[in-house]
Design brief:
It is a single chain. The chain is mainly alpha-helical and 104 residues long. It has helices at 2-27, 31-38, 42-68, 75-83, 86-103. It is elongated, with a radius of gyration of 15 Å. The relative contact order is 0.17.
Length: 104
Amino acid sequence: MRYVYIALCVAGVAAPYYFFVPFVLEHGLNLSLFMRQLMATPVSSFFGADVVVSSVALWAFIAYERRKRPVRLWWLCIVANLAVGVSLALPLFLLLRHSSEQAN
């Protein structure tokens, strides 16, 4: 599973940034334009809301799992979630949790 999680981390960065980098190159870090475009249609609003709820669910999952067993560097998943999204943060947390289990 370790290699699956690593591959998902790579895909979790590559896929969203494939779309985000051209936006930044054209508009810079214009957050107001980013939010307007994100909420421009009902379909894009659906995906935006889904990501926000998924992020909150992931943070709750991380908090719960950390109480059950120690996970080294768990905070990197929060940083990854804020910098990239759930697509990186979730497989990264699963990788870290898997690695922590293997170490014990």
